[in-house]
Amino acid sequence: MCCAHRSFKIFFEKQFSDEWKATTMAIYRLIANGSFGPAEIKAMTAAYEAALLDLGLIDRNDPITEVVATAIVSVTSMGERDPATIKDRALNAIGASSFDSNVA
Description:
It is a single chain. This protein is mainly alpha-helical. The protein has one domain (3-93). It is built from six helices and no strands. The chain has helices spanning 3-15, 18-23, 25-32, 38-55, 64-77, 83-93. α5 (64-77) packs across α6. The longest helix is centred in the middle third of the chain and has 18 residues, at 38-55. The chain is globular, with a radius of gyration of 14 Å. The N and C termini lie far apart (50 Å). The relative contact order is 0.14.
């Protein structure tokens, strides 16, 4: 394990509960493969959770969560750091629209 990966793992384990890690598994796997700092990780995680809420995805094992996570990481790797912008661009990139619970 490289130094950067080990540092990320230690940071992640200290910062977040097991419950939280379980709900963000797809994004966590992708973040662990990159070289992102704490601010980027926080932005990606916030964007990911917001995107799943917008899409009405509750099951974190749903395969679409991996697609969303990949898009989130891709947008962030291009330099974006605002969670709302990351979420919007990622959803746009995968051709997804928000879930509207008011629609019958």
